[in-house]
Amino acid sequence: MIDRTRLAALYAREQASFVSAHPRSARAYADANHLFGQVPMTWMNKKAGAYPIYLDRALGNRVWDLDGFEYIDFALGDTGAMAGHSPAATVAAVQHRASDLGGITTMLPTEDAEWVGAELTRRFGLDRWSFALTATDANRWAIRLVRAITGRPKILFNSYCYHGSVDESLIVVGPDGEGMSRPGNVGEPVDVTVTSRVAEFNDLEGLERQLAHGDVAAVLMEPALTNIGIVLPEPGYLEGVRELTRKYGTLLINDETHTFSAGPGGATRLWNLEPDILVIGKSIGGGIPIGAYGLSAEFAASALARTDLDLIDMGGVGGTLAGNPLSMAAARATLENVLTDEAFEHMIATATLFTEGVQAAIDRFGLPWSVSQLGARTEYRFSNPAPRDGTESNAAADGELEDFLHLYLLNRGILLTPFHNMALMSPVTTAADVVAHHVIFEQALGELLGS
Ligand code: PMP
């Protein structure tokens, strides 16, 4: 249905106009000779244009690049900036902590941490909280704890999940239905099937088959997949996961780093889920690095009672800068003033407009695509019906089409998350911003489909 010759020609045209409009970014990239892959982090080479656009400044849901272009930002740092860029309340708290009071990192607790813990309990229900600087680390430390407490060696993941650069999680369901290393896995420390098991999302039978081995300490999952498009849970699936984990003595860790978009208490509160551990990161610091994990009171007590576990020094759980005063001040201000219950109402209403507009365009052009929304986050996928699991969703990827749409939008002032077709709404994203996207999206489809 997509004419590939036409797609390639349009992409080449967009690439030429990108290059002619972005000479300063071109120079910055060409001159970046001291960086591994020419970028501060290798994934910044995931770009639809010939090179990355370089940031000049960002505020609210707007980003400006070095060449002077302004963008409506629906990527929001892939959730790190879900609160909007440099929200005033967070900036004020960070300045106060760093400058008026002083003390960015000290190895001493601040009272802000208890405030944040109490607020996370109010939102998500878990009783005891501990902090990291990234969601990756929060996941890693949660994994160590569940292994220690259950005495079981393996963690179960969903195929094509993403939980950060966590060794155990880089597993997919192979052609024979069993686990294998995710393609591209960089230098795995041991064969991933030694540490992990895998089941498809929405597949309770597959899950039970794996749990029945009796060696799974915990299932670590997103309540909806968000890193291979959005894959929503089918009715009864999440309840089934909880029943099966209880049946086989396996703990349940919900990673709400992205699914927090579902509402002020994430998918856990929206869907009344009962995880033993909950992980979150990125957004709650308003852009300042933070990760967190919450434990049930029972689990926390059993971990603290284990005098053989070194939770104080070098036992493998912790980081020097974790829980630092700056992160805690940022999280307190962001949760208290920015990512509030009211803000979520607005963000979700805005995302609903986004979803409806994309669906209308899909219908108008008769495209075999689908769009899925999880609260403030929405995403379209090049298949219909929407994929049911990670493997199906991975198969629906279309890199050429995605690059064309991303670049077409970027050239006209709209940023989507580079890794897929995700749009996230901040508290200051407006209906007008959404309409601006839709006008250009439809224009792109019109040119591509020749109608
Ligand atoms: N969990 C989930 C669900 C994520 O999507 C990500 C990152 N995309 C992470 C964890 C890791 O976050 P970070 O890179 O900040 O450690």
Automatic annotation (TrEMBL):
Organism annotation: Subtercola frigoramans
Top enzyme class: isomerase
Protein name per Swiss-Prot or TrEMBL: Glutamate-1-semialdehyde 2,1-aminomutase
Superkingdom of origin: Bacteria
Cofactor: pyridoxal 5'-phosphate
Gene3D superfamilies tied to this protein: Aspartate Aminotransferase, domain 1, Type I PLP-dependent aspartate aminotransferase-like (Major domain)
EC number from the UniProt entry: 5.4.3.8
InterPro entries: Aminotrans_3, PyrdxlP-dep_Trfase, PyrdxlP-dep_Trfase_major, PyrdxlP-dep_Trfase_small
GO MF terms held by the record: glutamate-1-semialdehyde 2,1-aminomutase activity
Keywords: Isomerase, Pyridoxal phosphate
Similarity field: Belongs to the class-III pyridoxal-phosphate-dependent aminotransferase family.
